[in-house]
Amino acid sequence: MNRESGDDIVIMEEVLSSMDRISNLPEPILHCILSFLSFKQVVQTTVLSQAWEHAWRTFPILEFDKTFFNQVPSVSCNNKIEAQLGDEKLSRALNYVEGTLRTRRREMIRLDKFTLDLYELRVKELGPFVDRCIFSALESDVKELKLALPFHTSARVVDTRPGMPSVDAHNKRCYNLPQEVLCSKSIQVLALSCCKLQSLRSVKLSSLKKLCLTSVYAADQVLESLVDGCPLIEHLSLVNCLGFNTLDLSGLTKLNEFKVLNCLEVLWLSIQALNVKTVSIQLSLPCDINVASCKNIKFLTLRLLSLKDEWLCSQIPNFPFLENLNLVGCDKLKSIKISSLSLKTLKIFECAGLIEVKIEAPNLSIFRYEGDVVSFSIGAMTLLETHLSFDKNNSDIDWYSEYIGLLAMFHNVSKAVNLESYEGENADIPEDLRQIRSSPFYGYNNLDFVITGTRVRVAIKNTIDGLLWISPHLRTVTIKSFYLNWFSFKFEFSYKKQAVYEGGIAQCCKSRPISCWRQCIEQVVVEYTSNCVNNVKRYIFNGEDIWEKIDWLADLDTSLAWSVEL
To answer: Where are the transmembrane segments (predicted)?
Structure first.
């Protein structure tokens, strides 16, 4: 009996061994599998087999991010017991990080990536720990180093320049990055958050291709030395950084992408990088910007800048390969004049001082606009997509009249026009105006309408009625909202008879200028989805009371239990 049981065990082990074929894969393949898992999942694989345990011990990617430290208290605790337990958890976590790094160094494993995200801990005296981790990673020839540090990390802190009111309090006491990091021959990607760069003796990041600084303090000369010491840099990102007033990027022949966002003290910016393709600039203070020599720019974003009309008009011709232009929140602009043969996508968002827009871009295919109703002048072009969101500041009939005129103009140059509105009010065209104006859209089969505001209950009936006046005889209408309580209504319409058009206007619309669809429509199929339901709700409306049934949809969020097909 015992012998048979022993034989059974041997057979079972053989079966299990043959089944675990993944463990027999070459270790580089196991490493590739581990690279798609979270840190917690990676560690859990060590119990599967010795092969997986060894794969973890030689795994060259170490990411100690927020999920790793989520069990450690982020703020000081008044309860002594809880505070003691929190200190113990933190101590174990920090020891595990250092032990893992020591193992890699002892086994002479070169690190492809090391991430240390301590941002949410808000714990003092972490400076020595961070130093040890950095030096250990450098000794393992780390290629990608990402550090996100809390505001108070070390006893060895250096206050920023005195008397600087624009420097936030958290930058007055922040971690000083060791000089050794900026002399590493192995680092190819360096991402730093919440630290300070001291006066640099020398920077020799000879392999660095990507540099991302977030909430970093660096003086003008320090930043200039840093950039000069990265001859191979391809991507440079500066976000919420302080300490420098000028930014001169010249001689960076490999630079492909540059981004500067919310660097509050920058007053002068010059980019002389012939091969840069993507530039994104967001600065709140008036700033002198020179990008004219960037002849190969394809993607340009200018956000919250104090730009003048003349500057923008003179700059665009300098970019013969420009394909994508985004102008966002540039309130000083009054007249936007764009002339470009290469431009394919143009976005103009919330430029509050805008009065007119003139576009001469024959190859433009996508246009997006958010803002007031302004004067538009558009040259010969055929847009594939147009997305329009006009701010409605009053109920004046003149506003609606201009609005309808603009819709008609964009209809003439666009294969598809999608509309957006804060609470759906832009679809509710006054009845008096419908009597004297023609519908702006004809010939469209589909129309998307996006609600961007916080309103929970939308007047579905009025919205559908208005959209079907704006564009009669649509086959489908989709109404979407992407706020907290997101939802989507898709309406499919069937008509009693096919519309007969004469001069671009349906005959039934001429005879019944107001809501002719009420007489022509035969059936409506509605599909409803939201974050409150797991599946699509489908409704079929027909008969003379279709109008009332559509009105009922406005209360659907409170009637999800009523799952019926009418």
So the answer is: none
Q: Provide the token pair at 370.
A: 């958010």
What's this model's pTM, rounded to 2 decimal places?
0.83
In a domain, 165, yes or no: no
Domain contains 439: yes
- Quote the pLDDT of residue 161: 36
Residue 55 Cα distances to 26, 98, 476, 530, angstroms: 10, 19, 54, 43
The strand ranges marked E within 197-290 are: 210-217, 235-239, 246-250, 257-261, 268-272, 278-282, 288-290
**Half-sphere exposure for 452 (CA within 13 Å, toward CB):** 11
Task: Please give the full DSSP string across 278-315, using - where no structure is assigned.
Answer: EEEEE-SS--EEE-TT-TT--EEEEES----HHHHHHH
Domain that holds residue 494: 434-566
CB atoms within 10 A of CB 422: 15
Distance CA 340, CA 282 (A): 23
The answer to whether 380 touches 362, Cβ cutoff 8 Å, is yes
Q: Is the pLDDT of residue 185 over 60?
A: yes
Q: What is the DSSP string of 326-394?
A: EEES-TT-SEEEEE-SS--EEEEE--TT--EEEEE-TT--EEEEEES--EEEE-S--BSEEEEEE----
Query: Is the CA virtual torsion 371, 331, 483, 387 positive or negative?
Result: positive
Cα-Cα end-to-end distance for the chain: 69
**Domain membership flag for residue 549:** yes
Q: How far apart are CA 275 and CA 560, in angstroms?
A: 56
Residue 297 lies inside a defined structural domain of this protein:
no
CB 257 within 8 A of CB 294: no
Main-chain dihedrals φ then ψ at residue 339, nearest 5 degrees = -130, 110
User: What residues have CB less than 8 Å from 344, skipping those under 6 apart?
Assistant: 323, 324, 363, 364, 365, 366
**Predicted pLDDT at 507:** 52
Number of C-beta neighbours around residue 456 at 10 A: 12
> What is the residue-wise DSSP string for 398-422?
HHHHHHHHHHHHHHHHBS-EEEEES
Span 409-431, pLDDT tens digits: 999 999 999 999 887 788 888 88
Domain count, the chain: 2
Place of tokens 């010969």: 380
Given pLDDT bands bounded at 50, 70 and 90, which one contains residue 189? very high
pLDDT score, position 457: 59
Backbone angles phi and psi of 435, in degrees to 5: -70, -30
Contact 363, 344 (CB under 8 A): yes
CA distances from 24 to 10, 27, 67 (A): 19, 8, 30
Largest alpha-carbon pair distance within the chain?
98
The reported pLDDT for the residue numbered 154 is 40
State the pLDDT at residue 33: 86
CB of 368 closer than 8 Å to CB of 349: yes
Give CA–CA dist 386/389, Å, rounded: 10
pLDDT value of residue 405: 94
C-alpha pair distances (Å), 353 with each of 2, 368, 405, 485: 90, 18, 21, 32
Distance of alpha carbon 190 from alpha carbon 138, whole angstroms: 12
